From TrEMBL:
<dbReference type="Pfam" id="PF00589">
    <property type="entry name" value="Phage_integrase"/>
</dbReference>
<feature type="domain" description="Tyr recombinase">
    <location>
        <begin position="180"/>
        <end position="365"/>
    </location>
</feature>
<dbReference type="InterPro" id="IPR002104">
    <property type="entry name" value="Integrase_catalytic"/>
</dbReference>
<dbReference type="GO" id="GO:0006310">
    <property type="term" value="P:DNA recombination"/>
</dbReference>
<dbReference type="InterPro" id="IPR010998">
    <property type="entry name" value="Integrase_recombinase_N"/>
</dbReference>
<keyword id="KW-0229">DNA integration</keyword>
<keyword id="KW-0238">DNA-binding</keyword>
<protein>
    <recommendedName>
        <fullName>Tyr recombinase domain-containing protein</fullName>
    </recommendedName>
</protein>
<dbReference type="GO" id="GO:0003677">
    <property type="term" value="F:DNA binding"/>
</dbReference>
<dbReference type="InterPro" id="IPR050090">
    <property type="entry name" value="Tyrosine_recombinase_XerCD"/>
</dbReference>
<dbReference type="InterPro" id="IPR011010">
    <property type="entry name" value="DNA_brk_join_enz"/>
</dbReference>
<keyword id="KW-0233">DNA recombination</keyword>
<dbReference type="GO" id="GO:0015074">
    <property type="term" value="P:DNA integration"/>
</dbReference>
<dbReference type="InterPro" id="IPR013762">
    <property type="entry name" value="Integrase-like_cat_sf"/>
</dbReference>
Length: 379
């Protein structure tokens, strides 16, 4: 039940002190300038205490989103990778500027949805950049990453800190993302890019491009390979690449064969020769000439290679898509493509399904031709 006591200060000002006592809960008290407000608050507290909603809301009122983000930066972010920290810091800084002043009890899905809309429409960019700030807006995939950063911070406050009863991100829709690039190289384009890469001033570019085309590995996976990750048996004509940690967070392997195998073995022989006849297991396959224990920078060399090969609307990552298309046209199933490329789900590999269907169509057509020949009467 609630008890309201009227108090009068030395100056004659009235106030109303409320105490709500319900068995099983700690007493809740608050002071108001109006008796009507005191009664309303008491009724609300009694209802929410009985429903189990009030105490979490009291805790949420004590903290702002800015305080939540600050604690998250100090306790959670340092455990992440450097690139993750860099990106998440940008994302969280934006949310703090936009909604940091609200306490967690005030923060709701409507406020977050309005901020999401601003993320999608407001111009951004740096002064003096080639693309004027007024012409740049965030892509849907970027907005999703911003929302993901806030969502994880809020979930941490709910599940680990007890600052909130539930995350206000629940129910806030993410923009639809269509990142399904379908840019694959034709046979002629493959030859042009390999010739261009071989002519590059960067001594590693040809092997890197060849590996991307033949294995479907991501650029980061290729550039972080060390000689301990290249498994080759004596006299074998192919090898196995072991990726200790991929983008998906899992280790996986990829076969190394044909021209890519030959190119890597050439590099391996040079590495052994330069290391007094022993394989430097911890050395990168493609080390930088200027920075110790860092892979060589290929961005400029790749861009020059792409232009010389006359590849329009083409990114390095599309070499991975080309590998997937080659697998599909060689008869690999969707599951096999997913395994080779390291997709966690079948959905990503399904982008090549039209190519596997084309292959299956030709198989069925050949089968029907043979069936037809068997049905024809002998002359």
């Amino acid at each position: 039940m609630a008890v309201i006591r009227e108090r009068v200060s030395a100056t004659g000002t009235k106030s109303y002190h409320v105490q709500v006592r319900i068995k099983g809960f700690p007493p809740q008290t608050k002071t108001f300038a109006s008796k009507t407000m005191a009664k309303q608050w008491a009724a609300m507290v009694e209802t929410e205490l009985k429903a189990g909603r009030y105490l979490p809301r009291v805790v949420a009122e004590r903290h702002t989103l800015a305080e939540l983000i600050d604690r998250y930066r100090k306790e959670v972010l340092p455990q992440k990778k450097a690139k993750f920290i860099r990106d998440q810091t940008v994302h969280l800084d934006w949310w703090e500027t936009k909604l940091g002043r609200y306490n967690l009890a005030e923060l709701n899905s409507n406020l977050i949805a309005q901020a999401r809309n601003a993320l999608s429409t407001e111009p951004y960019g740096k002064t003096g950049s080639k693309t004027a700030a007024k012409d740049r807006v965030r892509a849907p995939a970027t907005v999703v990453r911003y929302m993901g950063a806030l969502s994880h911070a809020l979930n941490t406050a709910v599940n680990e800190w007890g600052w909130m009863d539930k995350s206000p991100m629940v129910g806030v829709k993410k923009p639809k993302v269509d990142n399904e690039r379908r840019r694959f190289l034709s046979d002629d384009e493959i030859q042009r890019v390999l010739v261009s890469a071989k002519d590059s001033e960067n001594r590693f570019l040809y092997t890197v491009v060849l590996m991307a085309l033949s294995t479907g590995m991501r650029q980061s996976e290729i550039m972080t390979l060390r000689w301990r990750n290249v498994l080759v048996e004596d006299g074998a004509d192919m090898g196995l690449l072991v990726m200790e940690k991929t983008k998906n967070g899992d280790a996986r392997t990829s076969p190394l064969a044909e021209d890519a195998f030959t190119a890597v073995m050439t590099l391996r022989d040079k590495a052994i020769k330069n290391n007094a006849g022993r394989l430097p297991a911890s050395q990168l396959l493609f080390p930088s000439d200027t920075v110790d224990n860092k892979p060589v920078e290929i961005r400029k060399a790749w861009e020059t290679c792409r232009k010389r090969a006359e590849l329009d609307d083409f990114r390095f990552h599309d070499l991975r898509h080309t590998a997937g298309s080659l697998l599909a046209m060689s008869g690999a199933s969707t599951r096999e493509i997913a395994e080779v490329l390291g997709h966690k789900t079948m959905a990503m590999a399904k982008r090549y399904s039209h190519l596997t269907q084309k292959h299956l169509g030709s198989v069925v057509a050949n089968m029907n031709q043979r069936l037809k020949s068997k049905k024809e009467p002998a002359k």
